[in-house]
Amino acid sequence: MKFLPILIALVVFLSVTTVIGLYGRLLQLKRSTNLNGRNIRNVQCARPKSLNLFRMYGLTDVAILKPLEEPRPEFEYLLTPNITVAIPDHLAGKDIVRSMVAVIKSDYRRRKERHAIRHSWGAMRYLNGMRIHVVFVVALPVSGKEEESLKAESAEYGDLLQVNMKETYRGIGLKALAAMQWTGSRFPDDWLYFSGDDDIFPDFEVLFSNINTLTRQSKKNGIFDRSFPIHCAFHHAPTPHVHRAGKWVVSESEYPHSHYPAICLGGFYGMTVRLAKAIYNASRHYPYFRHDDVFITGFMRLAVCDSYPVGEFCFRNDEFCAISSIPNSHFKHFKVLPEAYQNLWFEREAEMRLNGADIMKYNLTFVR
Asked: Which of 60, 169, 239, 293 is deepest in the core (most CB within 10 A)?
């Protein structure tokens, strides 16, 4: 019996020691978990070692890419769209995963083409979790009568962005940059900005499915607007050839290399508003190059990748920094009459609805 107190004390001592040890291990595990979480976030958002992509592609010695002494002035708008960030009444109750503004480059004379889009896919305001707004960017008409016609069109549909510049083929890229400036000044960083042509036929089901997948993944780390790259919905060209003749001719004195960096062809591509703002701001410091897809998704994409501050973006900084293609996308150029374009979309929409697509359209007659 004289050993019983000693045995009890020993049991108590071991029990307390075990509890203390377990508690210490739990604290260590918690600290480790928190540290790992910070490390994961740091790895995701830390800027990789720069490769100096401009130098890698031989762009530092190209005359058309010599930085300007003063930034280019900002664009002036004569007409602006009627779009609000607030969720409109007709979308109340919808599960909006993401919002996008699709800015379509259009000549002021192509009213029929704009009409065809407005009354086909452009009439959609919601598809499978995506809120959609369509804007047409145009420049100056050559006559007062045409200007009055544009003003009437803007009053009727509320979707025109008119830039104070001449309407020329070489100025298409400037209209795209003006649209990026306007979008960046109006919408949150995690909205999507897409640029397209007015004869493109979209495949939004595949595009939105891909975006929704990336959105779900990004909810784990909350960096969607910093990690979403330029998406080539129409066509991704990893090594685009430089044309020395024809419509897209570029002389060797302008650009001496035989290939451009990777680009998205201008038919339809998109990015976050955050990235659009960064690319637009970078573009103001370089001479304008008339091929908008090369200048915006090629040269200026690399300029942003070479210069973004730590934490601003979370892209891998290799030769394909901040650019990607969309698997199984079927965006196409359709050189058909506007009526045929609409009929093609109606067939596509019926197929989408049969496949269970959640589509909401807005009656254009109520847009004022």
From this structure: 293
- Report residue 229 as tokens: 């790259």
Residue spans of alpha helices (H) in the chain = 4-45, 53-56, 111-118, 144-157, 172-186, 204-218, 224-227, 273-283, 292-294, 301-307, 338-354
Shared-domain flag, residues 229 and 95? yes
Burial (CB < 10 A; 0-12, 13-18, 19+), residue 6, is exposed
Distance between CA atoms of residues 162 and 77, nearest Å: 6
Domain that holds residue 165: 51-366
CB contact at 8 A, 324 and 229 = yes
Residue 161 counted as domain residue = yes
Answer whether residue 46 is part of any domain.
Answer: no
Instruction: Decide: helix, strand or coil at residue 110.
Output: coil
User: Do the beta carbons of residue 99 and residue 67 sit within 8 Å?
Assistant: no
Regions of the chain where pLDDT drops below 70? 1-50, 219-221, 363-368
Can you give the pLDDT at residue 329?
Answer: 84
239 residue type, one letter: T
- Are 309 and 174 in the same domain? yes
Structure tokens at 342: 């609409």
- Tell me the CA distances in angstroms from 107 to 150, 164, 171, 182, 330, one per residue in order: 11, 13, 11, 18, 24
Instruction: Confirm whether 239 is domain-assigned.
Output: yes
How many other β-carbons are positioned within 10 Å of the β-carbon of residue 287?
13
What pTM value is reported for the model? 0.84
Residue 90 DSSP class: G
